[in-house]
Amino acid sequence: MNPTPAPDAPEADSRPTAHGPRSVDPAAVPRQKTGSQLPVGLPGDLLDDPDPHAAAEAAAVENLLRCWVRENNLARPDGPTLRIPLHASGSAFLIPVRYWSATGWHRFGRPALEGGPQGAPAADAVTVAALLGREAGQAESSDLVGRVADSVRRTASFITDRRAAPAPVAESDLFLTAEQSLLLGHPLHPTPKSREGLSEAETRLYSPELHGSFPLHWMAVDRSALAHDSAWTERGRTVPADQLAARLAGDLPLPAGTVPLPLHPWQARDLAHRPAVAALLEAGLLHDLGPHGDHWHPTSSVRTVHRPGAPAMLKLSLGLRITNSRRENLRKELHRGVEVQRLLRGGLAEEWQSAHPGFDIVRDPAWLAVDTPDGEPLPGLDVVLRHNPFGPGDDAVCIAGLTGPRPWPGRSGMHSRLADIVTGLATRTGRPTDAVAAEWFLRYLDHVVRPVLWLDGTAGIALEAHQQNTLVILDPEGWPVGGRYRDNQGYYFRESHRDSLEQRLPSIGTDSDTFVPDAVTDERFAYYLGINNVLGLIGAFGAQDLADERLLLAAFRQFLTKATALGSPLPALLLDTPVLRTKANLLTRLHGLDELVGPVDTQSVYVALTNPLHSTGT
């Protein structure tokens, strides 16, 4: 297989560099001793149960309860037990509180039904899902129950496999190791590992949690049916997407007049049953060439695949419902990736990296797809060619993977890579763990959050920078030294900046449908960067007994106060608004919404959340 040459600067120059740790004085914020997580008398962490299914059940129950607490804006109970009324069922859940988080990263014990018989077993995840769905009064509760069961079953399989073989398959590729580390998924999602439609054999091949890998499935597309665009440049010239695909296909034999198109193997099987695809195959405009070439590895999103050493990753269409959505690329997202690449190369990237050289966007500069004979997009065949800026030694890890619990028995308290890093730094330096945690957090704000606020304030572009889309670059000691954002779905061009953005790139947003009213942008930006990303990180520090959340909330307030000078409305919104709007993943699932379908302001359910930055956080 012929490798694709690396793209021109700034992409080639945007690889992480190991800058020395910046000096940050955590004494600027008053220190407090972290309190104990576990009330006296509670057993050890349920995630460490030797039975993988029991550990998976515990994780699923905690997720469901965290969702319910957040989406109903429940207050901290007065004592060690949380009572959740179940009016529709004439009962209530009684739940031991292991740790109450100011930011929503609560830890719970096994829930019991009030008034149940003495010695009755605790409610399992399916029971909790069924009763909460009934309480919410939503018609999709049966669908939720099925997806919860599927998520639990898969999570148990992942835990079993990782406990038996914890070592990564590519220890020299730090990026791939990090992408395969997220075993439990989003801590505030009811079905984080649900992937209905995968057989057991397919699960083994296509799951990053199981160190899966597979050759791509290839089709040949007649040029008359091919749609494509590219802003991928090498040596000062743009390389068309069909040439990039041909390099990836290597020695694959092609019918005359066709272009190779890579597909996910599961998607290729599913497409064979779609009438529109079958018609193109019969007409000779598509040719099914089967699997070919080297193995690729699924990353944390499942459908984006990586091959160590390759300069391109592939964001493949995948019709499985993963979390809330079927993950098939939309044509407007493909246009958006190329558009952002052209916008950045037009001078914005140079301006941005002059201010923040350690941060960049992982570019999606080329794509291929198929149109029908009528010129309409044919769904399910769209593929994005993404730059791979990471060498094997670049420690780039998404925040979800960094903070995600590793359910290994025999450890003391919740274990994660974040905990390993912070406790390791504390041990080597002889400093208190909470002081190291505070400094790590301040560096993260400086190297990752500040550049995202700069882009919004300077260009009017808000990023959907949630914990899976945000990568932190770590130096060899584990300190943050930079960051990356990825995802061609997650850009919000502010309507108030339309004129200035059109001056930067004429006709911007015409095909990508990226301009969004400022009020919607504010709501989504506050959720993704403020609540999901930063408050979620604070919650992980607290729930893993690394720092007092009140300390980190105070540090975040100080950071936001200074960051108002960057011009983004977000710092003032987070500081001054008593109630924020947060995405409600449980209600979104119960309403049966697909978050990739429909207008951006109605794709998900949003609810009110008391702002811990505005209150005392206790």
How many independent structural domains?
3
In what range is the share of β-strand residues?
15-25%
**Main sheet summary:** 8 strands, antiparallel
* Overall pLDDT confidence: 89
Radius of gyration: 24 Å
Number of helices: 17
Which CATH class of the largest domain is shown?
A: Mainly Alpha
- The total count of strands amounts to 25
The helix/strand class is alpha+beta
List the keywords.
618 residues; alpha+beta; Transferase(Phosphotransferase), domain 1; 3 domains; eight-stranded antiparallel beta sheet; four-stranded antiparallel beta sheet; 25 strands; disordered N terminus
Summarize this, please?
The protein is α+β, with helices and mostly antiparallel strands. The chain folds into three domains: 12-17 and 206-387, no CATH class; 46-179, no CATH class; 394-610, Transferase(Phosphotransferase), domain 1 (Orthogonal Bundle), CATH 1.10.510.
Characterization of the model:
The protein contains 17 helices and 25 strands. The chain is of the alpha+beta class. It folds into three domains: 12-17 and 206-387, no CATH class; 46-179, no CATH class; 394-610, Transferase(Phosphotransferase), domain 1, CATH 1.10.510. The chain has an eight-stranded antiparallel sheet, sandwiched between helices. Strands 1, 2, 3 and 4 form a four-stranded antiparallel sheet that branches. A four-stranded mixed sheet has the order 15-21-20-18. The N and C termini lie far apart (57 Å). Residues 1-42 have low confidence and may be disordered.
Topology:
Elements: H1 52-71, E1 81-86, E2 91-99, E3 107-108, E4 112-113, H2 125-136, H3 141-164, H4 174-179, H5 200-206, E5 214-222, E6 226-230, E7 233-234, E8 237-238, H6 241-249, E9 258-263, H7 265-271, H8 275-282, E10 286-298, E11 304-306, E12 312-316, E13 318-322, E14 325-327, H9 331-355, E15 359-361, E16 366-370, E17 383-387, E18 395-398, H10 399-403, H11 417-429, H12 433-459, E19 461-463, E20 470-474, E21 480-485, E22 491-494, H13 498-504, E23 515-516, H14 518-543, H15 549-563, H16 570-576, E24 579-583, H17 585-590, E25 606-610
Helix pairs in contact: 1-2, 1-3, 2-3, 11-12, 12-14, 12-15, 15-16
